[in-house]
Amino acid sequence: MILQIFFAIFHRRYIHKILLGIATFFLFSYLLHPGRFSSTDYDYIEIDNMKNFLSPSPLHISGKHMNKTQLCPIIIDKDKDIMSYPRKTVSESEKLAMPTDLNILPGGVWKPSSCMSNFQVAIVIPYRDRERQLDIFLSYMHPFLQAQMIEYRIVVVEQTSLHPFNRAKLMNIGFAETVKIFPYHCFIFHDVDLIPQNPNNIYACTHQPRHMSSSLNTFRYNLPYKDLFGGAVAILKRQFEEINGFSNAFFGWGGEDDDFKNRISYKGLQVYRFSPDVSKYVMLAHKKELPSESRFLNLKSGRERYETDGLNNLQYDLLKLENRSLYTWMLVNILPSDTNTDI
Ligand code: BGN
After folding, report:
1. What per-residue confidence (pLDDT) applies to 256?
2. How far apart are CA 98 and CA 322, in angstroms?
3. Ligand 1 center to residue 27 CA distance, Å?
4. In the chain, is it the N or the C terminus that has fewer CB atoms within a 10 Å radius of its CB?
5. pLDDT score for 336
């Protein structure tokens, strides 16, 4: 019946063209969609098992803080709602009210008042020229982390506009400067445009480095390739030191996260992931950067370089270090000549 109507409307000789058009459309959308080579078929830690894989801070074990009441609970609740999309703006008055409303100390520092947190975590954000995203990130993350009872500091490492962006080096600098402030045992390196959607995605380190953002909306919640280690990652302080941090050589977009994953493998460390549902993130919209040409060469020579390129050859000018009301702000100048690169 439907076919008869269809044939009545379209003359027979157009039908094959229409069908061909429809088939081409579906073929192209299949070939071009970002999750085409993706998978949710990777090893991960199930939600019921997560607690066993988390690595608590040695601070309370060493007894330094033992006079404080008892340890906070690790809150995992499968019934909690997953956030669909974060808000688009944050008003000035909201920003001003946040430190008092949420008891945030200067520097973007907080710890639970009624118990001692299992985790002392520094969240390091490489940054340049993304003010609106930073506002959204901060207004979302402070309550998110507090609900998980994490003791934390948010550190924003901003690069001056003089030279191409070097995401990896900013994270090395964030690490090097933050350990001077407080002995955080766990570091989370986090892009400013990523917002975790599942409150059960605990912002703490596991025994092995963890790729936190394996389920990203822009990749249709699939993992594009198994070695991806970008976006948001958590690593213990001693492991970050062991692998000599990130390479300082990657200026411009791409490759530095792949190199970091290689460093982890060279040292025989593994990568953990939580389940795809727990690892869901939304990426805030922005223009896509142009990939850098030098990334291929740097990636190729990574193995020869990694013991001498990283935390142990880090050079930079720290222009500002301020405890701002919602985050610790570091402004740095990085010279392209600091590292071997072809830009
Ligand atoms: C990869 C990039 C990563 C990036 C992911 C996801 C490179 C190296 C050359 C193969 N790697 O292709 O840096 O995080 O895409 O966008 O460009």
Report:
1. 98
2. 18
3. 25
4. N
5. 84
| First-to-final CA distance of the chain | 65
333: phi then psi, degrees, rounded to nearest 5: -110, 130
Tell me the CA–centroid distance for residue 257 and ligand 1, in Å.
7
Query: Cα–Cα–Cα angle for 144, 146, 223, nearest 5°?
Result: 35
Report helix, strand or coil for 291: strand
Q: Is the pLDDT of residue 343 over 70?
A: no
- DSSP per residue over 8-39, as a string? HHS-HHHHHHHHHHHHHHHHHHHHHSTTTT-B
**Residue 340: its pLDDT value, please?**
46
| Domain assignments of the chain as residue spans, ordered by start | 1-32, 40-338
| Cα 269 to Cα 266: distance, rounded to the nearest angstrom | 8
CA atoms within 13 A on the CB side of 170: 29
**pLDDT for residue 202:** 98
Q: Are 276 and 40 in contact (CB under 8 A)?
A: yes
Residue 34 near ligand 1, beta carbon < 6 Å? no
Whether the per-residue pLDDT at 159 is higher than 70: the answer is: yes
Q: Is the pLDDT at 107 greater than 90, yes or no? A: yes
Instruction: Tell me the fold of 40-338.
Output: Spore Coat Polysaccharide Biosynthesis Protein SpsA; Chain A (3.90.550)
Least confident window among 32-41, 49-58, 104-113: 32-41
Q: CB–CB of 293/342 below 8 Å?
A: yes
Q: Where are the beta strands (DSSP E) in 242-296?
A: 280-283
pLDDT at 341 over 50: no
